[in-house]
Amino acid sequence: MRASSEISMAGTDGTTRTDHTAHRGHADRTTRTDHTNETGETDETGDTDDMDDMDDTPVMYVESSVAGAAKILVVGPMGVGKTTLIGTVSEIKPLSTEATMSQAGARLDTKVRPSKTTTTVALDFGRITLGGELVLYLFGTPGQQRFLPAWKDLARGALGALALVDTRDLEASFDAIGHLEDLDVPFSVAVNAFPDSTPHNEDDLRSALDLLPHTPLVICDAREHKSSVQALISLVSHLIETLTEAS
Hints:
hydrolase, two-stranded antiparallel sheet, alpha/beta, nucleotide-binding, GTP-binding, P-loop_NTPase
């Protein structure tokens, strides 16, 4: 995919920049163990708390061929698979702020399946390079309504967003999509296919989510790399088309 200089956004403060480095080539990825629970969220174990291990972690530099970068949000309700998707596609070790769910939080948060024991409390972060020319910096937002102030801060400087939905509870996705519309952030929708999800045709899903005709809607599996990358490519194609029409 051809990168566009018009979509070179990476900074959380809304500033525009393109990353360059004297290093080239991919370092080996840090080995980690992923445990994916029923809700599609990923719990990671490893020795990242040990400073010696962190010092030995190989660094994957941005390719010198990269011509542009974009900040992309990954949004959706709690348990929809945001952490999993970012961890699946990220070419660097993803940053995750998972915390154990507590009884205190249970009084405020939407109820989720019993197997869901952790939740993102600040953000998830990952990076992926498309076509060797465009870098996407992925920022996963917390799913709980009480973290909306942080959610709005993360949206600053974002070129677009991928909204994940779960057909087992479409209503839970209404707030996230509504926030994107209020903030005027272009987005596409990816239906995360869970094993026990009931299939729905596209027209029914668009009607239920009240999507505009030009809003992309795709089916993906957040646990599968190719499927998740295709969802991001669909979003980027939509953003490029939107920018081209506006210019």
